[in-house]
Write a structure and sequence with these properties.
Number of helices: 12
Number of strands: 56
Shape: elongated
Helix content: 10-25%
Largest sheet: 52 strands, mixed
Distance between the termini: 179 Å
Mean pLDDT: 79
Structural class: mainly beta
Length: 1010
C-alpha cells in the first residue's frame, strides 16, 4: 500500500510539473522569448518581435519586423485564428481568419539576393536606379522560382486551407530621385482556399504621384486571384486577372492595360500563360509548357507595341512614332540552369527629331533584330546575332559570323574559331556630323559616311579593322558658325585593338581631298595600357599641300596661305600631369625659305594651359628666331591669356608672315590686302578680339624693317572685353633716342561705330637721309638733318577692316639744323648762248665753277663772249642754293583714310632763304614709301646776296615779308618720288629766266609755272 501511495504521489508531482510546463508554454512572455531567440539565430531572415501570444485556436503577434537583403517588412499587429496543435503536430494549417493592418513592405533599398546575384549596372551614386535594378532582379528570380515550383509539382510542405484573409498595408518602391521612394497602397481580401475548392482573393493597389506642376496622377491596379488545390498539399491552378490604369495629372486620357496570368497542371505536365492587352489589342503574350516526360520548359512569346501605348505617360515629352512586333521561342531545363531563347524583333520608327534634331534626316527607320541565345550558369552563348538598320538615307548592319560565349563573371569572351572574323558590319549614309566630338570647336556637316568593318576576337582580345577606308563626300568643315571648307572628300582607314593589357585606336591615314587631289593627310594613334595609371598616349604625323589648299575653291578663307607644303608630328599624354608637344615645318617655293618650330603644352590642375613655342623663320640669308611662352586659362569672359613674344633678332616681314596664320587660328579677322576703303558692313556686336582678356608682351632686341635695324622694340597689349590697349610701346635706331607710343581701341556695341581708336607716338633725333633712299654714286643726300617727330592717330569703325580704313594720322616733324639740296639743278646745258667749251666746262665743274661765275667772259676760238646779266645772275643763283644750310625745318603731315600723305605745311628757314609750301605723297599699291608719287609746291623767299641775284634775274617781288625775305614771283613745283625727285619744272623756270628775249632785247619776263 505504501508503494502505491508513493507511486501516486510521484505521478501527482509529474502531472503538476506537466501542468506548470504547459501553463508556461502558453504564457505570452515565454512565447515571446522563444520567438525572439528564433529570429536572433543566424538565419537568412533577420528580425525582431514585440510580443507573441499563441493559445488554443488563435495567434497574436505585435511589432513584428523582418529583413531580407534590404527588404524590410514591418507589421504592427497580426491576428490569426487557426488550430495550433494541428499545425504543430499534424502539419495541418487551417487558417480560419488572418488579419494584418497598416503593415509596410519597404523595397526601396533592396540589395538583391539569391545564391548567384546578378550584377546590376547603375550610375555611381545613383541609389534609386541601383535599387530599381535590384528589384527587377528579385522579380525575375521570383518568376523563375514560381516556374520551377510549377515544374516540381506545386507540392506544399503541409496541409493548407485558408478563409477570411484581410491584409491591408503599403509597399515602398524606389523613386526617381536619389534616396526617394514611392508608396503603393495594397489590399488583399478573400478566402475559400481548400482541397477540392477554388480560393478567390481580391487585389487592389493604388499609388498617387504629385507632379512638378502640383497636379496628381493616380495609378491603380484592381484584380482577382484564383487558386485551386488538387489535394491539401498540392496546387492545381492559379490565375490573376488584373487591370492597371492611370488617370489625372497631365495625362490626356485614362490609360488602362489588362493582364491575364495563369498557371495550371494536368496529367501531362504544366502550362503557363501571360497576356497583356490594351483594349482589344494583345500587346504581349507568353505561352509555356512543362511536359513531365522531358522535364523541360518550352514556349513562345509575341509582342506588338506602339508609341500610343506609352505616349499618355509622357504628355510633356513628345515621343517618336514607332511600332514594334516580334516573336520567338524559348526552352529551359527543369532546374533552370540552362535557358535558350531565339526570335526576332522588327521596329519601325519615325519622327526621330523628337529625340535629337540631328536624327530628323533619318526619316522612317526600320530596325530588324535576329538572335539565338543560350544562358547556362554564368555564361551566355550567342549562336546568332544580327542587327540591321535601314532608313530613308542611312543604313547599317552588324552580324556575328560565328558563335561566341560570354563569361558574366570575368567579362571575357571566346569564339569558336579565333583565326576567323567574329563580327562584320557596314554603314552607309550616316551623317558625318554624328562623328564630331561635342566639345571640339571644329564641326563637320554635309556628306554621308560609308564603309565596312570586321571584328576578330582572340583569347578575349578584340581587333577591329576597316575593310577599305571609311569615306564621306561633299563634307563641309565649320568653325564658330563660319565655313572653313566645303565640298571635301574624307577617307579613313581605321584600326582598333582592345585587350586585357589595354587598348589602341589608330587612324592610318585620314585623308582630306577635293576633286581627286589630296590636300592633307593625318596618321594618329591613341593607346592606353591597363593598370593604375589612367593616362592615354597620343602620337601622330600630318602633311598638308599648301599650294593645293590655297588654290582650292573649297577653302575660301585660306587665300592668305603661302608656301609649298607643311608637315609635322605630335604627341600627348593624359593622366595626372597631362602634356602635349608638336613639331612642324613649313617649306616655301624657294627651298631657302622655311618656318620651323615646336609647341609644348602643360595642362595644369587649375585648368590653365602653359605653352612654350620656339620658332625659326628662314628667308635666304636672313633668319628670325622667336619664342612665345605664357599661359591660357578659362574665366567668366571666355578665356585669359598672359604671354610673351621675344626675339634677339627678327625681321618685320617674318612677323607679318606669322601673323596671318596665328590670327586665323585665333579667329581674329584680318583686313583684306586690297587697297581702298571697303564698303562698311554691319557693325560688330562683339569685338574682334572676342571676350578674351589678358596681357601680351612683345620684346625684340633687334628688328629689321624698311632696310633699317631698330633696337629694343616692344610693348604690352592689354586685353579686356571693352578695350585693347598698347602700353609702353618703344623702339628706335642704334645710338638714337628711342620712340615711345601708346594707344587704345575701345569697343561700345551700342554705338553706331562700335570701335574707337586713339594713339600717340613720339621720337627724337631721327636721321632724315634714309627716307629719300640711297643717293646715286658720287652725289650727296637730298636732305641731311635730324628730326623730332610726334604723331596722333584717330579712327572709328564698324569692324576691324573699317576701323583701319578710316584711320587718320597727323605728324609734326621738326629739325633745328641741317642741309637741304632740293633746289640744286643744272641749267648750263640748257642755255643756247653758252656754247662748248664753256658749257662743257660749266657742266663738268658744277658748283665749283659757280663760285667763279663772276667772270664776265670765256674764250672759245680766240673770241670773247659776254653773258647777259640775267644769265649770269641765274647761274650764280643756282650755285648759291645748291646746298642750303637751314636753321629750322618743320613739316605738318596728315595721313588720310586713302593712305596718301598730305604735306599740310612745310616751312624752312635759312640765313638767306626761306621755303613755304604744301604737297602730297600719293598711295600706290606694291610700292615702298620712297617710291610713291610726289607732288610738292613751294614758295621761295630770299634776302641778302641770294635776293640780289634773283632781283637781277627779275624773279622776286619788290615787297618783303615780315622777316625781310623777298618772295619769288611764283611758286616752285616738284614731282617724281622721294628717292628720285623730278626738278624739271624748277629747272625750266630758271632756264627761261636766264634766256634773253631776242625780239626786244629786254630782260625776259619770268616764265609761267610749269
Amino acid at each position: 500500500m505504501k508503494f502505491f501511495r508513493r507511486v501516486l504521489r510521484y505521478l501527482g508531482y509529474a502531472f503538476a510539473l506537466a501542468a506548470i510546463l504547459a501553463a508556461l508554454a502558453f504564457a505570452p512572455i515565454v512565447q515571446t522569448w522563444i520567438a525572439q531567440a528564433f529570429l536572433a539565430a543566424h538565419l537568412p531572415v533577420q528580425g525582431s518581435v514585440g510580443s507573441v501570444s499563441a493559445g488554443f485556436g488563435k495567434l497574436e503577434i505585435d511589432d513584428l519586423r523582418l529583413e531580407l537583403n534590404g527588404a524590410v517588412l514591418t507589421v504592427p499587429s497580426l491576428r490569426a485564428r487557426l488550430p495550433l496543435l494541428d499545425a504543430a503536430f499534424k502539419r495541418r494549417i487551417r487558417v480560419e481568419s488572418l488579419a494584418a493592418k497598416d503593415w509596410t513592405l519597404d523595397l526601396s533599398r533592396v540589395r538583391g539576393g539569391g545564391p548567384a546575384p546578378t550584377k546590376a549596372v547603375a550610375a555611381p551614386g545613383d541609389a534609386g536606379q541601383a535599387a530599381a535594378a535590384q528589384a527587377e532582379v528579385i522579380t525575375a528570380q521570383a518568376v523563375a522560382f514560381t516556374l520551377r515550383e510549377i515544374m516540381n509539382g506545386w507540392a506544399l510542405p503541409c496541409d493548407v486551407s485558408m478563409d477570411g484573409t484581410d491584409l491591408d498595408g503599403n509597399v515602398l518602391v524606389p523613386g526617381q530621385s536619389r534616396g526617394a521612394s514611392r508608396r503603393v497602397h495594397v489590399a488583399l481580401k478573400g478566402g475559400g482556399l481548400a482541397a477540392g475548392r477554388e480560393g478567390t482573393f481580391a487585389i487592389d493597389a493604388e499609388n498617387a504621384v504629385v507632379n512638378s506642376d502640383l497636379s496628381v496622377t493616380v495609378v491603380a491596379a484592381h484584380g482577382r486571384l484564383f487558386i485551386a488545390m488538387a489535394s491539401p498539399r498540392t496546387l492545381k491552378r492559379f490565375e490573376i486577372e488584373a487591370e492597371v490604369s492611370a488617370k489625372g495629372g497631365s495625362l490626356p486620357e485614362n490609360v488602362a492595360v489588362s493582364a491575364d496570368i495563369a498557371a495550371s497542371r494536368d496529367p501531362g505536365g504544366g502550362q503557363f500563360t501571360l497576356g497583356l492587352s490594351r483594349g482589344s489589342r494583345r500587346i504581349a503574350a507568353v505561352d509555356a509548357r512543362f511536359p513531365d516526360a522531358s522535364g523541360r520548359l518550352e514556349g513562345g512569346w509575341k509582342i506588338d507595341l506602339r508609341d500610343s501605348d506609352f505616349a499618355p505617360f509622357f504628355p510633356d515629352h513628345p515621343l517618336p512614332a514607332f511600332s514594334t512586333d516580334g516573336d520567338g521561342r524559348f526552352d529551359a531545363d527543369a532546374a533552370f540552369t540552362r535557358v535558350h531563347a531565339l526570335g526576332r524583333l522588327n521596329t519601325t520608327v519615325s519622327r526621330l527629331g523628337a529625340l535629337a534634331p540631328a536624327l530628323v534626316r533619318l526619316g522612317t527607320t526600320v530596325v530588324d533584330l535576329r538572335f539565338d541565345l543560350a544562358h547556362s550558369g554564368q555564361t551566355l552563348r550567342v549562336d546568332q546575332l544580327r542587327v540591321a538598320i535601314s532608313a530613308t538615307g542611312p543604313n547599317a548592319l552588324v552580324q556575328s559570323l560565328q558563335p561566341f560565349v560570354l563569361d558574366e563573371n570575368t567579362g571575357s569572351m571566346k569564339v569558336s574559331d579565333p583565326r576567323a572574323d567574329w563580327l562584320e558590319g557596314s554603314i552607309r549614309g550616316l551623317p558625318v556630323a554624328w562623328f564630331a566630338a561635342p566639345d571640339f570647336r571644329v564641326a563637320l556637316a554635309g556628306g554621308d559616311v560609308a564603309g565596312q568593318f570586321a571584328v576578330r576576337a582572340v583569347n578575349g582580345d578584340l581587333a577591329l579593322r576597316s575593310k577599305g577606308p571609311f569615306s564621306a563626300a561633299g563634307v563641309s568643315i565649320l568653325r564658330a558658325g563660319g565655313v572653313i571648307g566645303r565640298g571635301l572628300d574624307l577617307s579613313l582607314a581605321l584600326t582598333a585593338d582592345y585587350a586585357s593589357q589595354g587598348w589602341q585606336v589608330e587612324a592610318a591615314p585620314l585623308v582630306l581631298a577635293s576633286a581627286g587631289r589630296r590636300l592633307a593627310s593625318f596618321d594618329g594613334k591613341a593607346a592606353r595600357v591597363a593598370g593604375d595609371d589612367p593616362s592615354i598616349a597620343i602620337t601622330g604625323t600630318w602633311h598638308a599641300d599648301l599650294d593645293a589648299l590655297a588654290a582650292e575653291p573649297a577653302f575660301p578663307g585660306l587665300h592668305w596661305m603661302i608656301g609649298r607644303s607643311a608637315s609635322g608630328d605630335f604627341s600627348a599624354g593624359t593622366g595626372n600631369a597631362p602634356e602635349a608637344e608638336a613639331k612642324f615645318t613649313v617649306l616655301g617655293h624657294d627651298p631657302a625659305k622655311s618656318v620651323t618650330g615646336s609647341v609644348h603644352l602643360d595642362f595644369n590642375a587649375d585648368g590653365s594651359v602653359g605653352f612654350l613655342a620656339p620658332l625659326k623663320v628662314a628667308s635666304g640669308p636672313g633668319t628670325s628666331d622667336l619664342s612665345a611662352e605664357g599661359t591660357w586659362s578659362r574665366d567668366g569672359t571666355g578665356g585669359r591669356i598672359d604671354a610673351k613674344l621675344t626675339s634677339q633678332d627678327a625681321t618685320l616681314g617674318h612677323l607679318r608672315l606669322l601673323a596671318v596664320p596665328l590670327a586665323a587660328a585665333a579667329g581674329v579677322p584680318l583686313p583684306r590686302p586690297e587697297a581702298g576703303r571697303p564698303p562698311a558692313g554691319p557693325a560688330d556686336r562683339v569685338p574682334f578680339w572676342g571676350t578674351r582678356t589678358g596681357r601680351v608682351t612683345i620684346g625684340f632686341d633687334r628688328l629689321r624693317a624698311w632696310n633699317r635695324v631698330f633696337v629694343d622694340v616692344g610693348g604690352t597689349f592689354d586685353l579686356s572685353p571693352g578695350s585693347l590697349r598698347l602700353l609702353y610701346g618703344r623702339g628706335g635706331l642704334p645710338k638714337h633716342t628711342p620712340a615711345n607710343a601708346d594707344g587704345s581701341i575701345s569697343f561700345d556695341p551700342a554705338a553706331a561705330f562700335p570701335y574707337s581708336l586713339k594713339a600717340t607716338a613720339a621720337v627724337n633725333d631721327v636721321e632724315a637721309a634714309p627716307f629719300f633712299g640711297e643717293p646715286q654714286h658720287g652725289q650727296d643726300p637730298l636732305l641731311e638733318g635730324r628730326f623730332s617727330v610726334t604723331g596722333k592717330f584717330t579712327s572709328a569703325g564698324t569692324g576691324l577692316e573699317d576701323l583701319i580704313a578710316r584711320t587718320e594720322g597727323g605728324f609734326q616733324l621738326t629739325s633745328m639744323g641741317g642741309i637741304i639740296r632740293l633746289l640744286k639743278t643744272d641749267v648750263a646745258d640748257s642755255l643756247p648762248e653758252i656754247k662748248t667749251p664753256v658749257s662743257d666746262t660749266l657742266g663738268s665743274v658744277g658748283s665749283f665753277m659757280g663760285s667763279l661765275v663772276g667772270i664776265k667772259h670765256a674764250f672759245s676760238g680766240g673770241g670773247e663772249i659776254h653773258l647777259p646779266k640775267a644769265t649770269e645772275a641765274v647761274l650764280d643763283f643756282t650755285n648759291q642754293v645748291s646746298e642750303i644750310g637751314y636753321e629750322k625745318l618743320t613739316l605738318d603731315l596728315v595721313c588720310g583714310p586713302d593712305r596718301s600723305i598730305r604735306i599740310v605745311d612745310l616751312e624752312m628757314t635759312a640765313p638767306s632763304e626761306r621755303l613755304q609750301g604744301s604737297g602730297r605723297i600719293a598711295q600706290a599699291n606694291g610700292l615702298s614709301f620712297r617710291a610713291r608719287p610726289l607732288s610738292l609746291d613751294l614758295q621761295l623767299s630770299a634776302r641778302g646776296r641770294v635776293a640780289e641775284l634773283l632781283s637781277n634775274a627779275g624773279l622776286v617781288s619788290a615787297s618783303l615779308d615780315k622777316l625781310g625775305y623777298a618772295p619769288l614771283r611764283q611758286s616752285i613745283h616738284f614731282g617724281g618720288t622721294l628717292e628720285h625727285v623730278d626738278d624739271g619744272s624748277w629747272r625750266d623756270f630758271l632756264v627761261k629766266a636766264a634766256t634773253p628775249n631776242p625780239d626786244s632785247g629786254k630782260k625776259p619776263a619770268p616764265a609761267a609755272n610749269q
